[in-house]
Amino acid sequence: MPARERTPLNAPGPFFTAKDQCITCGAPEAEALDLMAFDVERGSCHFRRQPGTPDAVRRAIRAVCVACCDGVEYDGDDPAILAELQRQAPDRSALPRPPRQRRQPWACP
To answer: How far is CA 11 from the centre of its chain?
Structure first.
């Protein structure tokens, strides 16, 4: 699956909102108030900063999983984060994930 284009205001890093995918539900921002924001002009949430602590990573993972569309994603390769995403979204864990290749972005259902 090709990587999706990111909303321009996303902070560089593996957690992001895909461009034109936010439906303004407000759920991801509520899970990660310190990491995410909503841009009224573009009509999209975005990661204004990437998580830097284990607790912030936990909130970013929750933001991915509570989004009511698949627009909030993780495309990194941290084994602990991938394992937690697989735990929270087991139906996606069956996807093949070859080592050392770009992984499909995660979006919890």
So the answer is: 12
**Closest to 22 in 3D by CA, of 2, 3, 39, 1:** 39
Cβ pair 17, 73 in contact under 8 A = yes
Which ranges in the chain belong to alpha helices (H)?
Answer: 27-31, 54-66, 79-88
For each of the domains in the chain, give its residue range(s) and CATH number, in order of start.
15-92 (3.30.70.20)
Q: Which residue has the tokens 């509520």?
A: 30
Q: By the 8 A CB rule, do 67 and 31 touch?
A: no
Beta-bridged to residue 106, according to DSSP, are 74
For residue 13 the two structure tokens come to 């890093």
Token readout for 12 is 């560089």
pLDDT tens readout for residues 17-62: 988 888 888 889 999 999 999 999 888 999 999 999 999 999 999 9
